[in-house]
Amino acid sequence: MKVLVVGKGGREHALCWKLAQSKRVSTVYCAPGNAGTAVEGQNVAIEANDLRGLARFAQRESIDLTVVGPEEPLTLGIVDHFQREGLRILGPTKAAAELEGSKVFAKELMRHAGIPTADYKLFRGAPDAEHYVLSREVSMLARSRGRSTIRNTINCRTAAEALEAIDRILDPREMQAPGVAIVFEEKTQKRAFQNPVEAREYVLSKPLGLVIKADGLAAGKGVVVADTFGEALRAIDEIMVRRIYGRAGDRLIIEEKLDGQEASILALTDGRTILPLEPSQDHKRALDHDEGPNTGGMGAFCPTPIVTPELMESIEREVLVPIVHAMKRARRAFRGVLYAGMMLTQSGPRVLEFNVRFGDPECQAVLMRLRSDLFEALDAVVDQRLDQVQLTWHRGPAVTVVMAAEGYPGPYERGRVINGLEDAERMKDVKVFHAGTGYRADVHGGRDGRVVTDGGRVLGVTAIGDTGTEARTRVYEACKAIRFQGGWYRHDIGEKALAEIS
């Protein structure tokens, strides 16, 4: 069999690596691929969103199965296009991929299907969204000092009322008298401000606890956990006014922040049978101890002990089965890889989001532990015979640590030479998955053979061990062996959770 993997990240390298191990697979192609996928198979210079180019290649090379890694081609309708051309492809149709392509669609479907998720509100314009945020409670008293022409005390129940109090008390047209100030009194503190800008910053720094989400695809960056009023207003401005995500910001969801630990649940489904994979856990924040900005994922481990067999049964019963049935009722039958991002709250598991493909970097850790033939499983999904498949797993855990480029998740430079890859690969039970890599060009425009950085998340260094401690020790020894200018990574991936699997 010939297999084509669409995409160029760490997830796609892991798919190529695992598919190439199948006895039924003769050749693996990856479009467009990276420096790592070129080792597992053959790269094809076709971008993931070039649906026609990919279909022509699949026809010309008699590709037996195409596996789509990223979400963009799925939401563009690559599956529909391939099926019209008589080509076998794994993934949901364009209509079914809206489960990830539109957070509004996913939320409404969950509400109708009774799937547990956070409460939310939908907004089509920035003013209404801002008004909703500022209507949240702050509970403070505003007193005027040095003014005799205004009521002395204003009870501010919301952020909007506190901002109005600033405008009234620190009205620039009546600021001639010296010593005029606004005093905010709360349960534990009292703060005075003569500068209205500083007073506003104080109000907007108050704790909030909302999540702001662009409706459409935003390359994994359209979600902001707003811990303060200011962060929420900035997110609304970026998404709906400055339009940094384009049309993805036409609509916006604001939902209550859920507290608990996150877990990633991946499952294969052919629309009739659901086959869950081993649960994993991702690390979204850039820095150790879950600090810093959100990223596409700085590491993952599998399995996660927080998802017990009993909890997994509950998630399958209350989330996976209902969403597959709901999609079928909506005439959007889902076939492919279903990803449920879960928050495990004190009130039970709640869905944060659905994705319609393998997670990244969860895919790397999950596939590192998979003993079974991945091609056989994916082939069964396409043929709707998933009920005949059983998966087996390595008993020990796997850990993936993402090595990132200097500046990520902000702007970063490309083309920095990566050293030590061979040393890391030679280590026992270690695999280095390439995410953002390429080859350095020589003076003639060809390749000089040296691997260089070509993305924000550069590598997904992955190791497996008999215990959590062993897996973590191996993966961090491998990370130390790899060097490139400005490269960095978190040092605490799986630290607490994997102590339980030791």
Describe the structure.
- By secondary structure, the chain is an alpha+beta fold.
- It is 31% helix and 28% strand.
- The protein contains 16 helices and 26 strands.
- The strands form seven sheets. A five-stranded parallel beta sheet has the order 3-2-1-4-5. A five-stranded antiparallel beta sheet has the order 16-19-22-26-23. The chain has a four-stranded antiparallel beta sheet with strand order 6-13-11-12, sandwiched between helices.
- α7 crosses α12.
- The longest helix is centred in the middle third of the chain and has 21 residues.
- The chain is globular, with a radius of gyration of 25 Å.
- The model has no long low-confidence stretch (mean pLDDT 93).
Which terms summarize this structure?
single chain, 502 residues, alpha+beta, five-stranded antiparallel β-sheet, 31% helix
Which secondary structure elements does this structure contain, and how are they paired or packed?
Elements: E1 2-7, H1 10-19, E2 27-32, H2 37-40, E3 42-43, H3 51-60, E4 65-68, H4 71-76, H5 78-84, E5 89-90, H6 94-101, H7 103-113, E6 120-123, H8 126-134, E7 137-145, E8 153-158, H9 159-169, E9 181-185, E10 190-193, H10 196-204, E11 207-214, E12 223-228, H11 229-241, E13 252-256, E14 261-269, E15 274-276, E16 281-282, E17 285-287, E18 291-294, E19 299-302, H12 309-329, E20 336-345, E21 348-355, H13 362-369, H14 374-382, E22 398-404, H15 421-425, E23 430-434, E24 437-441, E25 447-453, E26 457-464, H16 468-481
Parallel strand pairs: 1-2, 1-4, 2-3, 4-5
Antiparallel strand pairs: 6-13, 7-8, 7-9, 9-10, 11-12, 11-13, 14-15, 14-20, 16-19, 17-18, 19-22, 20-21, 22-26, 23-26, 24-25
Helix pairs in contact: 1-13, 7-12, 8-11, 9-10
